[in-house]
Amino acid sequence: MSRVGKYPVAVPQGVTVTVADNVVTAKGKLGELRYEAAEEVDTTLEGDKIWVKPRMDSKRARQMWGTTRARINNMILGVTTGFTRKLDMVGVGYKAAVQGNVLKLSLGFSHDIEYPIPADLKIVAPTPTSIEVSGMDKQRVGQIASEIRGFRPPEPYKGKGVKYAGEWILRKEGKKK
Fold it and tell me: How deeply is 20 buried, as exposed, middle or buried, from its count of CB atoms within 10 A (0-12, 13-18, 19+)?
């Protein structure tokens, strides 16, 4: 039995939510998000709460019950406050800069990496060695941050590379004589 799915999703002031044919649409100060729930669950809007219930007692229905509730909750949080993922760069000469709608990364390769910034996200480089990816869709923010990290993931010997802020890198001992 899902522990997450039992609880309703509270709709705060300033957010408009519509539920039609298991399609949940949330509109807030940051924009509008839409989520099509799985056919195994029912979503209903009662007052200022969204309830998610499984239609049957199958394993898939129980899985989608909690998942749907969490996705709707993230949607509501996204249109009200948004999500931010911070990345840090460790290494000599590693730096990032935003030029127009392109993120320019110097990561120790023979060439700079130019990453186009998607229209629905905001990417800033507050310092030359840090990057902040922010937007209203949690999945999209995490995906783009993961792609940027994937250009030079942290290595275990010196810890050089692009890592999430607060990420702890398991360090290995080098060769011994």
Answer: exposed
